[in-house]
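Q: Could you fold this chain for me?
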Amino acid sequence: MIDPVLASRLQFALTTIVHIIFPVMSMGLAPFLIYFTWKEIRTKQPVYEQLRRFWTRIFAVSFVVGTVTGLVLEFEFGTNFAAFSTTAGELFGGPLALEGMMAFMLEATFLGIFVFGRDRVSDRLYFLSSIAVGLGTWLSAVWILIANSWMQTPRGFEIVVENGQRIVKLTDPLAAYLNPRFPYMFIHMQNAAVESVALFMAGVAAYYVFRHHVWGYPIEHIDVWEKTLKIALVVLLITAPLQVIQGDEYARHVSETQPQKFAAMEAVWETDSYVPEYIVAFPTDVNDLLNPRTKDLFGIGIPGGASWLASGGNPQATIRGLDSFSTKAPPVAIVFWAFRIMVALGFWFILLAVWGAYRWWRGELFEDDLLHKALMASSLLGFLAVEVGWIVTEVGRQPWVIQGVMKTSAGVSPSLTGAEATFTLLGFVTGYILLLGLYTYVIGRIIRAGPPSRDELTQSNAAHVPESEVMSSD
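A: Sure. Below is the predicted structure, expressed as structure tokens.
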């Protein structure tokens, strides 16, 4: 049987890795849906109604699955991390409760209008519902990231003892909720969600554009996919550079507030200056290949690059090494490589955006088969970048569940046995593989079906014309 601490961490990691796909999809789609709705109402062009209807289906499915998997995560705080919940419940419970009462209820209430009410409410109310759905989606992120960012840079609290138990007592809610990490995490996460969805949209659109313009296959409503590709490229051209620029500031903030995590990101074991930014690094001993905390590394990097990143421009800056901390280092290899994958993908997304913009400017956007293939191959890479980014955030914080306050091992439910933890872990692995497979199948069906045709839109709109309008027209 697996140790209950390890099993609980693996289970929470699994459920988080799967769950995060769905809120990223819904958060990223929200601004697009608001734009499509606005353009549909303002211009009356059928292409925007087709875009809204098509992407709303994917949004609705992602919202439902994200809600279910999100509830599972909250239950795990009680089943697997009861000691953490007891200690931090006063602070942690507030944002989670507000997320449910404020954000989720707002989103769920207006989602019904947005999905089913287009022909039953006025344009103004319908557009308001699109804004409310998007606002609810983003408000959910606000409260979740407030809770998580506090765990990274805890503020506004004191530790008291009640009935022999150390408890986090909230003393300054404003300082706790608006802790130093929150703005960095929120901007980075929301921009990543929009960027990921833009990549996904571009990849789907490129598939149909490629088949039509390069292979010559007749594709129904090709104008929808051409419009999708252009909109996605515009958004990608904005979000991709912004993510790299803001990510650079974020990394500098991490070096100031969580120096042990930053040292793990750069694999710096001994305090030193003029530290290189390793592009790749490998153990010098074959026996250490499976040791995530190996110290003897051979690396190829940019001299002074890590020091420059940590200080914001000084290649001679000193970086504190992992050996100088009293706590055990996090799994350095996992954090190191996850960070590099995230950064490499970030620059690849910029290249894709500039490449697409150049081809568009040259009038060759729909004929560049190599660009289409690159976009198709990259359609899911935004989600991969989000996943490895969260690995850096969460694994890099170890051994702390609350930075400098509580270790992860102390937060696990004390009564949880290895057998119970192993059994539930295996059950979650099986269940989440099936869930992810079902979600992929449904989304694939929606994409293959494509947006509704203009004849279908005409029939649908005619079927929902209010009786009063029919009588007045007669």
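A (continued): The beta strands are 157-162, 165-170, 272-273, 277-283, 297-302, 318-319, 400-402, 406-407.
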